[in-house]
Amino acid sequence: MACKFQERYGTDETFWINIDKLHRIFVCFSKEDTSEKNLKIQDEKDQNSVIDSSQFYQNEFASKCPTEREIILQKIEEILKQYFIKNTAGDIGSIQLPNRRLWKNTSFKVERGIKMIENPVLKTVGSQRKGSDAKLIKLLHVLTKVHKLIKTNSYRTKRELFYEDVNLFKKQSVLDDILDDIACLLKTPKVKLHVLTTSKGCIAGNLRYREVDGSYIDCNETNQGKGFPDVNTREMLRKLWDVLRIPILGLMDADPYGVEILSIYKYGSIAMSFDVEKLAVPEIRWLGLLPSDIEK
């Protein structure tokens, strides 16, 4: 099967080595999870043959309420499990993803913005289609990377992930698009994938906040904002609104690009419609510049 596929699509042997590697990685962490859980359960039985009722209800509640990290890990493992179960005939197989580029996959409300619908039209990645199979390999590869990052509670920047596999991705934008697809597939904000982005925007003003690691960021030390609205800037603006409920005003150019930038801040974008609750700020007001402000 591999030889026929190679002859038809011009795929080198590295393609199949990657598939085999992904399969072995999945099998390894599946066995590891199972054995760790079994050992943990057995240890608890041995060490706590008698427990009080409060411990019992606490343990029962915890077992029925997995953490957000555990839920994401379970989703990834189930996706990989189903992929390898369905594709045992030696071909590349496929995975279906929500199509983030179709307007009919979104709904719009002024008070909320552009949101992906509950049952969006799906696109198929793979199925022995030239070009699509290569994307599937990259998607599976990044899924295993994200699984490891979440499981070990470690982080990488998008740039670090790219340089770890430059020959695979070729361009940073390819990896960025795959991460967006994965976040959409898992129905989780991108930040929960443990992959960090480098913001192109800046923040300035009378604001001081604490990061997760305990460090403080003093926004008085910067003096300007800049650039097209990247995800980090949009998420920060939404957080300011959610927490402080302060007026949000936008100062944009009085041209189509300025209107587009304001619209993305206010209503979100089609590509990120699955995460609109974390990114859009419908309450933002256009302070200017207005076309009427400019004298001819």
TrEMBL record:
EC number: 5.6.2.2
Species name: Trichonephila inaurata madagascariensis
GO molecular function: ATP binding; DNA binding; DNA topoisomerase type II (double strand cut, ATP-hydrolyzing) activity; metal ion binding
Domain Spo11/DNA topoisomerase VI subunit A N-terminal stretches: 135-195
Transmembrane parts of this sequence: none
Protein name: DNA topoisomerase (ATP-hydrolyzing)
Entry cofactors: Mg(2+)
Family: Belongs to the TOP6A family.
Keywords attached to this entry: DNA-binding, Isomerase, Magnesium, Metal-binding, Topoisomerase
Domain Topoisomerase 6 subunit A/Spo11 TOPRIM: residue ranges: 225-296
Any one annotated GO CC term: nuclear chromosome
Reactions it catalyzes: ATP-dependent breakage, passage and rejoining of double-stranded DNA
Active site per the UniProt annotation: 163
GO BP annotations, alphabetical order: meiotic DNA double-strand break formation; meiotic DNA double-strand break processing; reciprocal meiotic recombination
